[in-house]
């Protein structure tokens, strides 16, 4: 893949794998264009292009990202259940765990960026080319003002650019913190019941943040998923008010996060240090999308670290762990913490991939069948009849939703995706 030059080169990087390379008039989807800085003329021009999701490669990417997103999310929930509630450790320090997860994500962001470049042929063969980090600039340039990293690299950090992502980072931090508190202070069925509100919140945000008029089949299938998940999670356990309340607040920030993430991604595309140089071209290139993908992850995780780690130290979480935990010398405990950080990092990456490939609402809806499967797994598949009915209802409703979404993808050739930021 050629480097993106600032000196006026007319060559452009290759088109994304979901685009038709034979079409010379393809532009970026308007669902990926900036939210507030895009002019009307650019919007009209970019809307003339089309993303060919109906090609075999496009659908392989679509279903592959959804499947991996659901699998990694289920693994993350199962691992946190083991860490907080199972075994002799029962590590009940959610703020400390959140800080460790962010620290692990920061380290993995640096090393995985270089690793993905080394194994890029394998990732592209698996239709995971979106995760390959773009090359750094050939000649590092001095950053103006306060910041560090080579200009244009994925580890670049500038306050002038980064301050635009503070809100998205705050939502992400609150999502992690409150979700860990909900998991630590409420049994899994209580946690699952409180998180059902994520789907209604997502419908609200899709309607009022994206100005969407959702079709009746989409609304029906979505609400059926929520009701099926309610039946799956319904059982007699000790009710913990603090866990339930934390779960409700966690549902709000979990539903809000993908919408703010898409908005931040659009803004990052507009604020890239490299801009399109082809005469008459509209919209960012494929390499620009890759650079925005990795750099946004780096900015959000860096600001989240600045918020969560000092907060955990001030509140005494680290001192409490050091003073009361007698198993800090156990290798298995640190293995579980490291595994939590690794799975959290993978979920962090795949959430942005899910939002980029599909839509924020799709990212939330995918958590429905994933949560139903996790409930069955953590119950050792010993559920009551009504829970199995809810389980089947959740999956059938998810297939219903997917069928309607696929029909909407190909309904109008000039519209690439249904849920667009306006």
UniProtKB/TrEMBL annotation:
Annotated TM spans: 59-79, 91-114, 165-185, 216-237, 243-262, 296-319, 331-354, 385-402
Keyword field: Cytoplasmic vesicle, Endoplasmic reticulum, Golgi apparatus, Membrane, Sugar transport, Transmembrane, Transmembrane helix, Transport
GO cellular component annotations of the record: cytoplasmic vesicle membrane; endoplasmic reticulum membrane; Golgi membrane
Chief location of this protein within or outside the cell: Golgi
Region (Disordered): 1-25
Entry membrane topology: Multi-pass membrane protein
InterPro entries for this protein: TPT_transporter
Keyword set includes Membrane: yes
Signal peptide from the UniProt entry: none
Cellular localization per UniProt: Golgi apparatus membrane; Cytoplasmic vesicle membrane; Endoplasmic reticulum membrane
Protein task: Involved in the import of GDP-mannose from the cytoplasm into the Golgi lumen.
Assembly, per entry: Homooligomer.
PANTHER family in the cross-refs: SOLUTE CARRIER FAMILY 35 (PTHR11132)
Family to which this protein belongs: Belongs to the TPT transporter family. SLC35D subfamily.
Protein name: GDP-mannose transporter
Organism encoding this protein: Drechslerella stenobrocha 248
